[in-house]
Amino acid sequence: MGKIVLLDELTINKIAAGEVIERPASVVKELIENSIDAGAKNISIEIENGGIAKIRIIDDGKGIEPDDMKIAFERHATSKIRVADDLEAVRTMGFRGEALASIGAISKVTMTSRTEDSETGYEVVIEAGNIIAEDVVACPVGTSITVEKLFFNTPVRYKFLKKDYTELGYIEDVVIDQSLINADIAIKLTNNGKVITKTNGSGDLKNIVYGIFGKDIAGAILEVNYKFEDMEVTGVVGKPEIARSNRRNQIFYVNKRFVKDKTLLASADQAFKGMLPIGKFGFLILNLNLNPKKVDVNVHPAKLEVRFTEEGNVYKAVMYAIKEGLLNNSLVSNIDSFEAAEVEEVEVTNKAKEAKEANEEIHEQIKTKEKKFGLVDLFKKVSKDTEKDYGDYKDDNLIEQLYNAKYKTEDKSRSSKYRS
Ligand SMILES: Nc1ncnc2c1ncn2[C@@H]1O[C@H](COP(=O)(O)OP(=O)(O)O)[C@@H](O)[C@H]1O
Ligand SMILES: [Mg+2]
Fold it and tell me: Whose CA is nearest to atom 25 of ligand 1?
């Protein structure tokens, strides 16, 4: 008799979940992304005990119809792509229709939703991939998803969960990552009823930075808005005075997706070169907008790495963007400090000229260096310099280590890469 068997649906989904859903923060990430995709303007994330006991996400997005609700928990169920031609979208946006199926396989999920053209809402309860209850309910337009008993049937994963406050730290990071790049969406996170982070959806990044990083940081950031060929770099850069001795405050997005990428870190180092002492890293929140076809977002949804087809251009675009942000804005702050109007005019013209020259000089320097080393070598050199540090940045346990070092004897509050 043959020995090959086909795995059943639940087993397949549990295996997929193992890759996609590593910890409560992964659930939060997937669900926030779905709420954003549904056009939500308000997203509320309520968790209990670091998400281990309960995660609830409420949005005011377009909602989902009863029939679709049930299908949504099946593997490869997505409303975001239709045909094989859209495969490009799977690659670039990561719509694989896998998140809900994965989450539903390893927990108890209650999904309640109503669309605008429906009088009533509908609720389904899924446990270990099966619908265990469904009914018509009264609810506002939008979707609410509650996840309980996470990892109840995957004991190994459950065992690897860290303490509540550590898991909360990971969730906080995910929420902040999303809050910073979705300034026009009000996002709120509470743990056991206590507000952890909250943004107002005003669309003003500076405002969000204020709320998350505090007054001192918000007062020392400068706007970045730079076009390079078909790429666009937007966000904020911190003045040298708020540089830190780690990279936690260098936050990058590619097409609004949070990423960790060495090319981008290398560009930042090059841009800040000469402005910061060795071992200090400038504050950055940048989004690189480029043709999705020019970036390979790893199909693995839990991974944050990307690959650029035009690495050299990305490197330049980001470096110039930061340089320009720092230079142009220092010009603006200089203008502020001038008293006499006449002097001002002369000075401003001079400053503008100086800034322009400085900018040109930098471009020249880069060009000469490129000629000398070749851009690829230059990039390799810089990224080699950053490697050691980046290793730290990638180490998840570092957050916990830092936490333990800092709070061991104090009360058990959370730890987040943004707060350490
Ligand atoms: N908050 C939500 N609001 C409206 N529809 C949702 C929401 N969450 C999930 N859905 C629907 O469920 C489908 C499956 O979600 P998911 O498993 O995350 O796959 P994907 O996001 O890749 O499409 C989505 O395509 C969407 O149609
Ligand atoms: Mg999704």
Answer: 78
CA nearest ligand 1 atom 9, residue: 34
Q: Are residues 156 and 77 in the same domain?
A: yes
Residues 26 and 103 in one domain: yes
Residue 134's CATH number: 3.30.565.10
Q: Output the domain CATH number for residue 245.
A: 3.30.230.10
What is the torsional sign of CA 322, 327, 328, 333?
positive
CA of 254 from ligand 2 middle (Å) equals 18
pLDDT in tens, 176-228: 999 999 999 999 999 999 999 999 999 999 999 999 999 999 999 999 999 99
Which among 72, 53, 64 is positioned nearest to 131, based on CA atoms? Answer: 72
Helix (H) or strand (E) holding 15: helix 9-20
Find the residues whose C-beta lies inside 6 A of ligand 1: 30, 34-35, 38, 59, 61, 63-64, 72, 77-80, 95-101, 143
Q: For residue range 286-333, what is the model confidence (pLDDT) as tens digits?
A: 999 998 888 887 656 566 788 898 999 999 999 999 999 998 776 544
Ligand 1 atom 24: residue of nearest CA: 78
Q: Which residue, judged by its Cα, is nearest atom 27 of ligand 1?
A: 79
194 φ, ψ to 5°? -95, 135
Range of the domain at 247: 214-393
In this structure, is residue 2 part of a structural domain? no
Residue type for position 187: I
Nearest atom, ligand 1, residue 103 CA: 17
Q: Which pTM does this prediction carry?
A: 0.79
Q: Are 234 and 325 in contact (CB under 8 A)?
A: no
Nearest atom within ligand 1 for CA of residue 142:
3
- Per-residue pLDDT tens over the stretch 224-237: 999 999 999 999 99
